[in-house]
Records
---
Amino acid sequence: MSFFTKDLLINFLFILLPLFLVQMYYLLKYAKQIDWLKNWTIAIFPILSILLCMLFPVDAVIVPDRYNIDLRRIPYILGTLYGGAGFGTFLLVLILTIRFLIGGVGFYVTLISLPILSIPLFIIAKKYLAMSL
């Protein structure tokens, strides 16, 4: 297995593990009626997933200049859908701050592409939260 595939699978694990943990906490919430647990899980797990995806990127040796690929957009989308536009704005600021601290020319791409993704995502999140289970 190449390093590219290994790193990509690790990024997928970083995305799926918090989703599974959220599902377990929801089962606990409905079984034990723990209300305060819902707010913390929606906030902590997407943040953790985004941080792990950005700190352990996939090294793309195919692209020149050792371009790093990470899957931070997937937990960002899921966190915004579950948390709403306010939480999505917090995640957007968090991603831009971390990307700025990491450095490189990829910050400018993120600075342009993520707000463009956020506009329709906030509209969809508003409708998504209004839907019933």
---
Amino acid sequence: MSDDDNAKIASLGDWRGALLTRIRRLVRDAVPDVIEEVKWRKPTNPLGVPTWSHHGIICTGESYKDKVKLTFAKGSALTDPSNLFNASLTGVRRALDIREHDELDEAALKALFQEAAALNAAGISR
């Protein structure tokens, strides 16, 4: 866990921080050698965006006022048998918008993390 990730998650101080902590645990369980870092710092978001990578970006965890958005860099190439993706459904990326009271299918999400990591490791670009 990086200090930057810890700072970003702690800065939220509400359900979004708790959700990102839970997601972080799921990513680490699914892909034990995942790399965590914060990217895309800017004046309006100085703490940046938590990003999980394994031979390329698996996904990012952006926080908004009403949701946490998990964006999978190569989401269109993932099978998503549980139909978790509910946002950014065109183009290469796919996303999952999670609101405060949404149920989280941990097993399906871990499977997406693993499939995304495997896709990156295989060198498949889409």
